[in-house]
Amino acid sequence: xxxxxxxxxxxxxxxxxxxxxxxxxxxxxxxxxxxxxxxxxxxxxxxxxxxxxxxxxxxxxxxxxxxxxxxxxxxxxxxxxxxxxxxxxxxxxxxxxxxxxxxxxxxxxxxxxxxxxxxxxxxxxxxxxxxxxxxxxxxxxxxxxxxxxxxxxxxxxxxxxxxxxxxxxxxxxxxxxxxxxxxxxxxxxxxxxxxxxxxxxxxxxxxxxxxxxxxxxxxxxxxxxxxxxxxxxxxxxxxxxxxxxxxx
Length: 248
What we know:
Oligomer: single chain
Helix content: over 70%
Distance between the termini: 69 Å
Shape: flat
Largest sheet: none
């Protein structure tokens, strides 16, 4: 063009405005990504605080017997409800399934299938109470065999070990969820809200799994020598030291 040099820049106001608009969109998008990552991290950190607080309490506690008794009641109630729903009638019961599951998961042999013939007007609440009482007696017998000190050591060991393992598995599931959550936007869903909802569900499932695994492990544990007890205590000390290093 007449009067222009080769290195002069052609400025078009329309082009400049389009570039600026596109740049603002990119910057806003990047900000949204960073904000969403922070939101996701907040969810993870909230859950981490719950787990670490629980671990600290367990490490400092001399005995977790009351904790065990509480979660044992929850576990038994949930287990019975799967086969004998609350407020249900006998046509809805699966007593054979309940009897088999108690034997397999807890090593508890109960003639559940005979109870209706032995007791008139048996209801779901009575079945749940009978199983609760039988499980409590099973744990009392276990403690009598092992001794109170050994039982306390095992209770604490299993709770810490299972909590550690379950938390690591939960973090892997959370990472998998996080990687795919943005695809929910294509389904007209809010990824952040979906993440919070599913993260809460996964966390709740993890806590229920911890309770169930601890109770079944304690129900089935067999200790035959002082050497095995000493090995468990040594393992617990090693795990406690490793956890302390992780938190530092």
